[in-house]
Amino acid sequence: MTDDCFAKAIINRRSIYQLGKDEILSSDEITEIVNTAVKYAPTAFNSQSARAVVLFGEKYLAFWQMVMAELRKIVPAEKFAATEHKINSFMQGYGTVLFFEDEKIIENLQAKYPLYKDIFPKWSLQSSGMLQFIIWTALEKAGLGASLQHYNPLIDIETAKMFGLPDNWKLLAQMPFGSIAAPADEKTFMPLDERVKVFK
Fold first, then answer.
1. Distance between CA atoms of 198 and 200, rounded to whole angstroms?
2. CA 123 to CA 43: how far, in whole Å?
3. Helix (H, G, I), strand (E, B) or coil at 183
4. pLDDT tens string for the chain (200 positions)?
5. Where do the DSSP E strands lie in the chain?
6. Measured between alpha carbons, how far is 149 from 165 in angstroms, rounded to an integer?
7. Rg (the chain; Cα; Å)
8. CB of 124 closer than 8 Å to CB of 101
9. Distance between CA atoms of 120 and 115, rounded to whole angstroms?
10. Which residues share a beta bridge with 20?
11. What residues contact 130, with CB distance under 8 A and at least 6 apart?
């Protein structure tokens, strides 16, 4: 890659599970990262269907306590210690980004362009994935650690209630973040010639 800074951020972006509360960036600076990413992340037909909720402080802790309570309803008591440990690790951080897609926008596009009706939901997921990657990499570049979690649809209803969100906002992922309390484990890679084909 020609941009060494961009390449370094991509390479260093990892799932960080041991988070800390050191304020590397202010809440306003983190919100600005999310705002920029939401504004400029590509979307099919410029649909701008991405929605995000950024949680700090008491709201951030209350969210993960709610996730814990919902998990307690379905995880057997004898196996809950590992689940509790994992959720507690997210609460040791500084905040969380919740990623949504506006299903109303997708439905309107399906009605307007019936030829692409079946593919719009897939494009929506691709757009959200790019948004998640942009924010995750930007947080890494700023010195923060994060991971991507998926407790939806288990927590969908309670999340919407907790923050007064519209029914058409579909929750896709949760990204707890904070200072890096411990680095990620070593990562292994498959041979690239098994994953990339080049034709000239």
1. 7
2. 8
3. coil
4. 556 888 999 999 999 999 999 999 999 999 999 999 999 999 999 999 999 999 999 999 999 999 999 999 999 999 999 999 999 999 999 999 999 999 999 999 999 999 999 999 999 999 999 999 999 999 999 999 999 999 999 999 999 999 999 999 999 999 999 999 999 999 999 999 999 999 99
5. 19-20, 50-56, 95-102, 145-146, 169-180
6. 20
7. 18
8. yes
9. 10
10. 179
11. 41, 42
The alpha carbon dihedral of 182, 188, 148, 7 has a sign of positive
- How far apart CA 67 and CA 96 sit, in angstroms, is 13
H/E element, 124: helix 120-141
Q: pTM score > 0.90 for this model?
A: yes
Interstrand relation of 169-180 and 19-20 (parallel, antiparallel or unpaired): antiparallel
Are the beta carbons of 19 and 179 closer than 8 angstroms? yes
d(CA 22, CA 164): 29
- What lies within 8 Å, CB to CB, of 102 at 6+ separation is 49, 50, 51, 166, 168, 169, 170
The helix (H) or strand (E) run that includes residue 72 is: helix 57-72
What Å distances lie between residue 60 and 8, 94, 97, 129, 161, CA to CA?
A: 29, 8, 9, 22, 15
Of 18, 54, 27, the C-alpha closest to 131 is 54
The DSSP symbol for 151 reads -
